[in-house]
Amino acid sequence: MNKQPPMIPLVKVAMPPRDVLMPALESVLYGGVIAEGEHVYSFEAAFSELFGLPGTLATSSGTGALHIAFELAGAGVGTEIITTSMTAEPTNTTILQTGAVPVFADVNPRTGNIDPASVESLLTERTKAICAVHYAGYPVELGELRQVADRHGVVLIEDCAHALGARFKGRSVGAFGDSAIFSFQAIKHMTTIDGGALTLKNQTQVPEAKRLRWFGLTKGVPRTEVDIVRPGYKYNMHNVAGLLGQLQLRGIDTLLNRHVSNGRFYDERFASVPGLAPAAIPDGAEPTYWLYTLLAEDSDDVERRLASIGVMASKLHRPNHYHSVFAPYRRPMPGLDEFYRKLVHIPCGWWVSDEDRERIVDALAKG
Ligand SMILES: Cc1ncc(COP(=O)(O)O)c(C=O)c1O
Prior knowledge:
Number of helices: 11
CATH superfamily of the largest domain: Type I PLP-dependent aspartate aminotransferase-like (Major domain)
Keywords: Aminotransferase, Pyridoxal phosphate, Transferase
CATH architecture of the largest domain: 3-Layer(aba) Sandwich
Family: Belongs to the DegT/DnrJ/EryC1 family.
Structural class: alpha/beta
Strand order of the largest sheet: 1-9-8-5-4-2-3
Organism: Ralstonia mojiangensis
Strand content: 5-15%
Protein name: DegT/DnrJ/EryC1/StrS family aminotransferase
Distance between the termini: 33 Å
Number of domains: 2
GO biological process, one term: polysaccharide biosynthetic process
Radius of gyration: 21 Å
Bound molecules: pyridoxal-5'-phosphate
Largest sheet: 7 strands, mixed
C-alpha cells in the first residue's frame, strides 16, 4: 500500500535540539529546585532584554498572565473591558472570570484586529481597560489605540499571545500597552510546554503582580510573617519551564525569521491572485505571522484545494461571541462578519520549506 506523506500542519511544536535540551533538563530535574527559582528569574531577564520589555513576570500560562493584567486594571463586578471577539477564548473567558463585562468592539475586516473607532464609540464610565489582540501575529494599529486609551484615561492591555517578536514602529509589541501578555503554550512560536509572561510598563505594579501570581503572598518572606490582604492565584512558572524558556530564546530569531520570510513571500504572491487577498498590514507594523491570514472569496475552496495537495488550512478560531457563554454580550459586528467569512489560515511557520510554499501558491493561483 502507498503510504501518504503526512499533511503539512498549520501549527507545530518547536523544541531545542535533543543534545542541548536533554542534559539541561536532567540538570534541572535532579538539581533539587524544580519550583519557581533562578531559572525562572533568568528567563524573565532574558525575555525583557531580547524584546526590550521591562518588568517581565513569567507565569504558568498566558491565561494566568491575562487574569493578573485584568485584575491590575481594576476589572471586577460592575466594570467593563472593551475587547475583541476575534481571538482564542481565553482572552474573553478571563474577563468573565473577573466579574467584568466583555464589550465586543468590531474589527477591521481587512486585518481581523480591533478597530480603534469602534473601541472609542463603546467607552463608558465603567470601562476599565481596552484589550487588543494581535490576531495571528499581525500587530494592531497601536498608535491610534494608544491615543484612544490616553484620551479616556483607560488602561491598554496587549494580548500578544500570537505575536511574539512582532513590531510596530520599530518597537516590540507589548511596548505600547500598560501591560502585555505572551503565551508559551505548546503550539505558539515558542513553547515552555505551558507558560506565559506578563510585562508591565509601570514598574511600581510589579510587587502587586507578583503577589497576585502567588496566592497573595510575597516570595522570600517566611509565611509565618506575611499577611494576605488580597487573594492571589497559583500562576507562577516553575524552574523546568524557566530553563526550557531560556533555551528556546536562544533559537527564537531563526524560527521567527522563517515565519516572516514565508509570510512576506505569500503577501507578495497572493496580492495578484483573483479572489484572494493577504490580510492588510498597517503602516509601521511588522507581523511575525504565527498563522498566515488569507482572505478568500471562497474560503472552503482554499481548504479543499490545499487538502488535495496534503496541506492543512482552516479558520482555526471561532469568534468568541458565537459561544453561549458570551450570548448576553453579542452585538452587531459587520467588520468581523466579513473578516470571518473570508478568513482561512494557511501554514506559514518554520516547517514550511521553499518548495512547500511554492506548491501552496501554485495550488491556489490555478484558475
Ligand atoms: C489570543 C490568545 N490569548 C490568550 C491565550 C492564552 O494563552 P495560554 O494558552 O498560554 O493560557 C491564547 C492561547 O491559547 C491566545 O491564543
